[in-house]
Amino acid sequence: AKTRGVADIVFLIDVSGSMAPCIDALRKNIEVFIDSLSAGDANNAAPVKDWRGRVIGYRDAEHDRDWFQDHPFVRDGVALKAQLANLRAEGGGDEPESLLDALYKVATMEATAKGAQSEDPSRWRYRSEAARVVVVFTDASFKETLVVPEAKGGSLQDVANVVMANRIILSLFAPNFEGYDRLSQIDKSEWEVVEYEGLSPQEALQKFTSDPVNFRTTLKQLAASVSKSAETVAL
């Protein structure tokens, strides 16, 4: 039997200095995502009644001491908003950040056992019991070589392998850099290219997230896409 309408969602957010407006826009509009997700939509995306969300911030694993800001899975919008409010966008500049390291950590996060009676807010649910979605927001490129101890020296291919092995569905909101094109080749991944004529990647994401009407539409589309993923959970 397939579990439908169940999803564990991680918002994996670049928290370097230029990301403050994006984080703020997410905090202000996250209800739009949650409401669309739990209600379904007119294009008959089935509602996801049973969702958990968590917010994780990342910076540069080589240069920032607390480069990975983790939070537990929660089940309500207020708690998710609080996690977003807790993110501090600082440092980082516009040089490459450690997205691959962060993705590796998230993809290899422990999961609860099949048929477990209780949930663990620090773990994924068992893979056939909930769709696993990771939503990335960033305005920078990423470092190509992993430095986290569990995958030191690894590459994008190692990340792609654990993302697929652990049935992660990736949704990227990122600039038009070649690396994101390669990440988006991973099975079931989606990439929304954030770019505007004449704007830097940092300015582009700020513009993309600052228009409330457009950004809410984006979040509704994201919710529809998560709903679709949650309809057919991989066994």
UniProtKB/TrEMBL annotation:
Q: Where is the VWFA domain?
A: 8-226
InterPro entries found in the cross-reference section: Thr-specific_kinase-like (IPR052969), VWF_A (IPR002035), vWFA_dom_sf (IPR036465)
Which SUPFAM superfamilies does the UniProt record give?
Answer: vWA-like
The lineage's top-level taxon is Bacteria
**In its UniProt entry, what is this protein called?**
VWFA domain-containing protein
Q: Which organism is it from?
A: uncultured Gemmatimonadaceae bacterium
The organism's lineage is:
Bacteria, Pseudomonadati, Gemmatimonadota, Gemmatimonadia, Gemmatimonadales
